[in-house]
TrEMBL record:
Keywords: Repeat, TPR repeat. The keyword Repeat applies. The keyword Plastid does not apply. It comes from Cerasibacillus quisquiliarum. TPR repeats lie at residues 20-53. This is Uncharacterized protein.
């Protein structure tokens, strides 16, 4: 009798069969927590359940973008544009953003302009216009560099000395570079760093404050000044700058690296870790600073095995790192 009742209860249980929305909601939650691997698994299950739902596919493309799989993201977005019954204009902006990351500026321009034609007041209108401005600047820089082989030599030489923190050799190169190319912005910020770490701190502050006055939104100026004030233990000045940086999410990987590095070096280890994870490693593998300060950040979070793994990876790609002591031992 008892057994019969149990069977009857079991027969009355309605089995739970998850639908696409169930997987999608879990995927979005994981994405917001920046757990991209888990988010991708959930969203892929949602797509399997509802392969014709363009929303699921668009979200999947955004995750691919976050982890640096730009080509994969574009495949998904192109498929949405081909198969969706209604036009998903946001796809055009997402495609533009991905092509910009890949350095394919003509494609990025085409899709950004298409998005603005279809959605002049859309959710991504401001971002699309900003992207077009950045593309204009990038294309101008490319045109200038084509005619200025000398500048490329200076850039590469200065970059090497800056990445190896050889400030004495970097400084005269940067001084010459600024005499020949006085409007080169990156050289000015590198020059300020070289001055600071060679002990000419007041001059370094003056350079960056002058640049910040000209361009109040200069990420390079704010990151340099935040680092300088932190090292000089000028806490109030440092805190006012670092608060602004916490709300900035650059588009380009080199800017992402600069910001993650400063956050890590100034004790914002958890935030820096999340920012380092957002960087496409392939785009910054030529930077010793990526391996140096990412491993430093990991070590201070207690992820010591991971820190050593990143450090050893950097040493393989850049043997000159073998001469350095671990950054956390300095």
């Amino acid at each position: 009798m008892q057994e019969s009742i149990k069977k009857q209860k079991l027969n009355n249980v309605i089995p739970f069969v998850p639908e696409g929305d169930f997987y999608f909601s879990h995927g979005v939650k994981a994405f917001k927590k920046r757990k991209f691997d888990n988010a991708l698994k959930w969203i892929q299950r949602a797509v399997e359940k509802s392969p014709d739902d363009p929303l699921y596919q668009c979200q999947m493309s955004i995750i691919y973008t976050e982890i640096g799989l730009f080509h994969k993201a574009n495949e998904v977005l192109t498929n949405v544009l081909k198969t969706a019954n209604e036009q998903y204009s946001d796809c055009f902006y997402l495609l533009a953003n991905n092509y910009a990351h890949l350095g394919l500026l003509s494609d990025a321009r085409k899709y950004a302009e298409t998005y603005l034609e279809q959605e002049p007041d859309g959710d991504f209108a401001d971002e699309a216009e900003e992207l077009l401005e950045i593309i204009d600047l990038e294309e101008q820089d490319d045109w200038l560099l084509d005619d200025e082989d000398e500048l490329i030599i200076y850039q590469e030489t200065a970059f090497f000395y800056m990445e190896t923190m050889n400030w004495k050799k970097a400084l005269p190169i940067l001084e010459e570079m600024l005499l020949l190319f006085p409007d080169h912005q990156q050289a000015k910020h590198d020059y300020a760093q070289a001055l600071f770490f060679l002990g000419e701190k007041e001059a370094a502050y003056q350079v960056e404050w002058a640049e910040l006055e000209k361009n109040p939104s200069s990420l390079n100026s704010v990151t340099n000044l935040a680092l300088f004030y932190y090292i000089d233990k000028r806490q109030s000045e440092y805190e006012s700058l670092i608060r602004a940086l916490l709300n900035i999410y650059p588009m380009h990987d080199h800017q992402k690296l600069r910001l993650a590095t400063v956050l890590g070096r100034t004790g914002y280890y958890e935030t820096a870790y999340n920012r380092f994870r957002m960087i496409n490693k392939e785009a910054v593998k030529g930077h010793l600073s990526y391996y140096r300060w990412y491993s430093y950040t990991l070590y201070h979070l207690g992820k010591k095995d991971k820190a050593l793994t990143i450090w050893k990876e950097g040493c393989k790609k850049h043997p000159m790192m073998l001469k350095e002591v671990h950054p956390w031992d300095r």
